[in-house]
Amino acid sequence: MDAQGRGRADNIDPADQWVLNPNTGDYELRLGASTAQPSVPGPRSSRTATAGAAAPPRGRTAPGREYRGSPEVAPAPDVVPGPRRRRPPQGPPPSRRKGRQQKPKGKKIALWTGGTVAFALVAVSTAGYVYVKHLEGNVSTTDVGSAGAGNFSKDKAFNVLIIGTDKRTGKGNQGYGDTGNVGHADTNILLHVSKDRTNATAMSIPRDLIVDVPDCPTKQEDGSTEVVRGSQGVRFNTSLGQSGRDPGCTMRTVKEATGISVDHFMMADFNAVKTLTSAVGGVEVCLTKPVNDKESKLKLPAGTSTVEGEQALAFVRTRKSFGNSGDLDRIKVQQQFLGSLMRKMSSSDTLTSPTKLVKLAEAATKALTVDTGIGRVSTLKDVALELKKVPPKNVSFMTVPVIDNPTEQVKATVVIDESRGPEIFSMIKDDVSFTEVKKKQQKEKAAVAARLKGSKADASEVRVRILNGGAAPGSAQETLTYLQNDEGVLKSENAGNAEATLKKTTLEYAPDQADQARRLADIMGLSGSAMKPGESVTNSQGLPAITLTLGEDFTGAGESLTAPSTAPDVEKSTADKVECAN
Q1: What does DSSP say about strands 463-468 and 544-550: parallel, antiparallel, or unpaired?
Q2: From CA 298, how far away is CA 145, in angstroms rounded?
Q3: Among 39, 76, 158, 229, fewest CB within 10 Å belongs to which?
Q4: 3-class state of residue 524 by DSSP
Q5: Are 428 and 193 in contact (CB under 8 A)?
Q6: pLDDT of residue 328 exceeding 70
């Protein structure tokens, strides 16, 4: 790089680097105090400096310009201005010094390109920060208080309630009727993501499911809290919007109906479907027969089609053209649509297109209302990255098992099927996969199951101390009575409350007490995962005993606590498979 270019690179006028050495009458290029300078012939002064002499005080040069040359050729104090100076040359002058070592050209290029890259990185980083702050402004948040987890954790399983409201806000949505709708919980999916990120379950909750909506504290605009009174035996969709209920009320209703705690929520309106599908260039759907629905305005041929925008919204809203024209059949179609959308969003066509990614980021942040725990774009990114770890083949779609409401003559609502629902809810709470997972997990499950195999002591030989570690008050005494009176476990005692609260009931025992532990596990209906090889304890008579600690999962003496290890009989699909709506 030449001196002129070097000057510009340092944001310095190259002419300012050429100065007159009054001692020699030559212009010299000054690059640094320790660098020997080349000179350009010019008018000479009447004196010359003695080589190696100490630098005298600075003398005068041309008006307005100081001499800043090397100390080796310092000016004399009584310099007399010579004739008018020549203009500094536009390029580098030839060096008059022999043997001056030049910087390798390659190193110059490396320095220049390195600086350019660094500048580019700073520019991109700055632009990225500005863009992230812009996206932050797109996201709407709602403070749901104690209904949610507060903060997002990458190290735990998590549950996100995805709510699609039927509120007719947004451009073009007023034409769908019911313009005064406050926005109910029309479409609801509880997404459970496993702790090890090998699997996820997306469980749809019908809007017409009859539930009890609990009392719900809601945050007001002025910062105060107002409690909305609960309702018994009402449709699930009234858990949002009705009487001023917010998404936290819907989260609390899920916990009330299923026993599953919800950590976060994401809520979207009609515009979300339109903007997200347009951002990815459309979503592929499949029909077994042609559809021409006059109510939703959906018109598609049989086979595969790509829908986006208004047409995509019409697809997920259509009810009369699928199945028996009920909400449950529409849920199946929506699940198929979401599976296709997931495949499109994670495809290389989307992930390698900056244009699509920017559109997707804009559409997603503008479409969503979320809880304050995940209200930052950086946190939403973390959630997305955790979801991305789950293989599509291990993302299960299903619906809460239901039956027709037995109290109605005209079947308009449904209730939870108590013969199947609790088992599904238990699997989600216990982080059990509905799909095949890694072989390592299968081996671990086999090892856990092996703890239940082997010889079992007689009930009369089982010596156990019972602790309450999170069960309902009185559970330890209830269990003691049950074991002694109904099962013949006479060497048992109530040891009071445990030091810590446990989510699940455990049974700890020493190696030589395994046969006693297996017998008690059989009586209590405990799974192998509840059995904890450890140490023996001493009971009130000074004898060794095993320890039964009743956790929050304890439901009552005599009721089995065995968690299912395989998926129950439930209709489900997975995100990797293409299915056609019928």
Answers
A1: parallel
A2: 40
A3: 229
A4: helix
A5: no
A6: yes
Q: Which residue has the higher pLDDT, 442 or 233?
A: 233
Do the Cβ atoms of 235 and 210 come closer than 8 Å? yes
Nearest to 44 by CA among 29, 25, 58: 25
- Three-class secondary structure of residue 209 per DSSP: strand
Side-chain-side CA neighbours of 98 within 13 Å: the count stands at 0
Q: What is the pLDDT of residue 463?
A: 97
Of 448 and 544, the structure prediction assigns the larger pLDDT to: 544
Q: Residue type at 413? A: T
Tokens of 546: 């095993």
pTM score > 0.85 for this model?
no
Query: What count of residues does the chain have?
Result: 582
CA distance 43 to 25: 5
- Give the closest residue to 479 by CA, choosing from 496, 470, 497, 466: 466
Tell me, what's the pLDDT at 5? Answer: 43
Identify the sign of the CA torsion 58, 62, 68, 69.
negative
pLDDT at 289: 93
- Which residue in 387, 270, 389, 283 sits closest to 336, CA to CA? 283
**Dist CA 183 CA 192 (whole Å):** 24
Decide if 561 contacts 521 (C-beta within 8 A): no
180 compared with 60, residue with greater pLDDT: 180
pLDDT of res. 572 = 76
Torsion (CA) 170, 171, 177, 178 in degrees, nearest 10: 20
Tokens linked to 405: 């409401």
- Eight-class DSSP state of 181: -
pLDDT for the residue numbered 26: 53
In this prediction, residue 568 carries a pLDDT of 62
pLDDT value at residue 32: 45
Kindly calculate the radius of gyration of the chain based on its CA atoms and give it in whole angstroms. Answer: 38
With 0-12 CB in 10 A as exposed, 13-18 as middle and 19+ as buried, what is 350? middle
Rounded to the nearest angstrom, the gap between the alpha carbon of residue 301 and the centroid of all alpha carbons in its chain is: 37
Identify residue 551 by its one-letter amino acid code: G
Number of Cβ within 10 Å of residue 523's Cβ equals: 18
Contact (CB, 8 A) for 184 and 240: yes
Longest dimension (CA), the chain: 124
CB atoms within 10 A of CB 56: 12
More confident of the two residues 131 and 365: 365
Residue pair 103/333 in contact by the 8 Å Cβ criterion: no
Nearest CA-CA partner of 359 in 372, 350, 346: 350
Q: Which of 35, 34, 42 is nearest to 62 (CA)?
A: 42
Question: Residue 268 has what pLDDT?
Answer: 87
Tell me what pLDDT residue 365 has. Answer: 85
H helices of 374-495, where?
377-388, 421-429, 439-450, 475-486
